[in-house]
Inverse folding.
């Protein structure tokens, strides 16, 4: 069936949020670790981390200044650094509950029971045991005119990962990492690899396969 | 182990591309359908579609003006519209091969063997049979100073989906859709749902669970 934007607009708010948040497909599940200038740690789940460039390694994430997790944005502005940590199957529940509206003076690490660690001496906590931990420095903040959403752009300065989780070609071995995927606001998935496709060159295409 | 950005910089280019493209975690697999002002259809796979807002429904995607799939961006600028289509298990190979450097006068629909369809009378083709098809209109184009990457922002005007693939709460039923996830440049995954977490309210948290 076809549903128009006008029809979606008439849906109740929660139903519309659930549809539009799930419409893009699978999303990454990452925990963003930050520290305020007064030393208060913060941790928040984000599903909007996106690749912007490989050399240097630039990653973006979308946030809003007016809603949870606004503490994350405030802290990044104060310190200029943050961490990105993959969510694996063992910490789904804790990761998800960082999205509750905890008071600013409460560390979500303590609230949900996750252990923090240090990474590359930056002034932001990472998640101990997370299968991929990235140290990031803020590069640019872009405010989107259309709805006030903010694209936070950071550059990777270091990462922690098990040596055995990097394939020979440099890609990460997701079966080994145990990283989960997310849809909508709160649906968590594990995965089964179907196949790795080759680099697509026109002369190698065969419709017979 | 810890790997610094300096070490990654010393890796060969392909290895670095594979690492940094996989580092964000799972990504959505979507086909973007466009048409040039002269009527030439184009189709390209993107892994960077991201949610920007729900009311109105705003979605972003990242592209670069200087690399494939640049025809997509040119066409969106010409017509102001495009479609976003979920990739399901039945079309992984065709979807992936849209990333080859096909000549501009070749329609990737014809090249890889996918059937086009019309959606909501916009001047862009959608992918017939794709489990979710979205008609989009261009709202804003944001050039990122840091590396010339472009964030294309569009507003949903209509969508096509099986009625039974929308859950009671408005979210999409991904088991039914068969949509796949992507990591890195070309690793495709199917999924198994682990659990849906509740809306996280501080007063409902229990560390006992």
């Amino acid at each position: 069936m076809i549903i128009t934007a006008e029809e979606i607009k008439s849906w109740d708010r929660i139903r519309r949020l659930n549809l539009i948040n799930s419409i893009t497909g699978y999303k990454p599940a990452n925990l963003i670790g930050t520290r305020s200038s007064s030393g208060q740690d913060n941790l928040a789940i984000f599903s909007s981390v996106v690749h912007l460039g490989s050399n240097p390694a630039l990653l973006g994430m979308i946030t809003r200044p007016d809603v949870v997790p606004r503490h994350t944005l405030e802290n990044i502005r104060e310190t200029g650094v943050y961490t990105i940590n993959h969510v694996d199957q063992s910490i789904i529940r804790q990761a998800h509950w960082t999205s509750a509206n905890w008071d600013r003076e409460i560390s979500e690490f303590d609230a949900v029971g996750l252990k923090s660690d240090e990474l590359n001496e930056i002034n932001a906590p990472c998640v101990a045991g997370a299968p991929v931990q990235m140290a990031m420095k803020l590069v640019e903040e872009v405010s989107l005119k259309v709805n006030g959403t903010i694209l936070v752009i950071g550059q990777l300065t270091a990462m922690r990962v098990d040596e055995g989780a990097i394939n020979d070609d440099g890609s990460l071995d997701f079966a080994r990492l145990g990283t989960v995927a997310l849809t909508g606001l709160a649906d968590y998935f594990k995965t089964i690899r179907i196949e790795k496709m080759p680099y697509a060159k026109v002369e190698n295409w065969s419709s017979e396969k």
